[in-house]
Design brief:
single chain, two-stranded parallel sheet, 12 helices, 2 strands, globular, binds zinc ion, Sterol_Desaturase_Related, membrane, Fatty_acid_hydroxylase, oxidoreductase activity, transmembrane
Length: 264
């Protein structure tokens, strides 16, 4: 054990290694995107701004306002997440290099390559997420694993982090399956992927049908974003997808909240 400890921490080699650079890039990207989006969502949840409040989806309910119970739960879950990131991200680097290779120091790939790979990541994540999420709503798995994510029927960005550790592993599998399978990726592409995935999940939990910055504003049928995931939390079923509504439409589980209806 001490030999392992010495080889990792007592020499400076680990902190100059590609595994260390990879971990720093991935974790810092995650933290910046997560907290930038959530700072905005926490601000609009705490203060009444009528020009933004009009876009709240569940207007028939009071704002969450971050009561002590939600703050305690969020701090607890955020600490758990940060600790697991510190240990799991270097492992991800070794998984990448076991199956293929991550380019850390090389020149950024062409944009056509980056966009093609990101497209594959999104399609793969959306499919794995839909089916694992669909299964997590079967009675036994819901009761023992997924219920923890459904504590709040009225979601807000930070509630995206609520999950059982097993669900956390399933989610990470959905996110990283295609990048690992591709065998040859660049750290820039992976950081862009983390940015897109974190933004998507935080905005889907925002509780707001915001114009311009939400996918449903541009592609309401194909990418219903917060309108689909808010409906999912409000009812505890239906709309299981992440990026797209395709699987939900095929499986007959496509349902949306309508912020316009809520204002009537
Ligand atoms: Zn669910
Ligand atoms: Zn959710």
């Amino acid at each position: 054990m001490s030999i392992l400890y010495d080889s990792i921490f007592s020499s400076t080699s680990f902190f100059q290694s590609d595994a260390w650079i990879f971990s720093v890039y991935i974790i810092v990207t995650y933290e910046i995107v997560f907290w930038l989006c959530n700072s905005f969502l926490i601000y609009i949840e705490l203060f009444d701004i009528s020009s933004i409040d009009q876009y709240r989806i569940q207007k028939h309910k009071k704002k969450l306002r971050f009561q002590p119970d939600i703050i305690r739960l969020m701090i607890q879950q955020t600490i758990h997440n940060q600790i697991s990131f510190v240990f799991l991200t270097p492992s991800l680097y070794y998984i990448f290099n076991y199956f293929g290779h991550v380019d850390i120091q090389g020149v950024r790939p062409l944009w056509s390559t980056i966009l093609f790979q990101i497209g594959l990541f999104i399609l793969s994540e959306d499919t794995i997420f839909f089916w694992t999420h669909y299964l997590l709503h079967t009675p036994w798995l819901y009761k023992h694993i997924h219920k923890k994510h459904h504590v709040y029927k009225q979601p807000t960005g930070v509630t995206a982090v609520l999950s059982d550790p097993i669900e956390g592993i399933v989610t990470q599998f959905a996110v990283w399956f295609m990048p690992v399978l591709l065998k040859e990726t660049h750290i820039f592409t992976l950081c862009l992927w983390v940015t897109i995935r974190v933004y998507q999940t935080v905005i889907a939990h925002s509780g707001y049908d915001l114009p311009y910055i939400s996918t449903q504003y541009w592609l309401p049928e194909l990418m219903p974003g917060a309108l689909a995931h808010d409906f999912h939390h409000q009812h505890g079923k239906w709309s299981y997808g992440s990026f797209f509504s395709i699987w939900d439409q095929l499986m007959g589980t496509h349902r949306l909240s309508t912020s316009k209806t809520a204002t009537k």
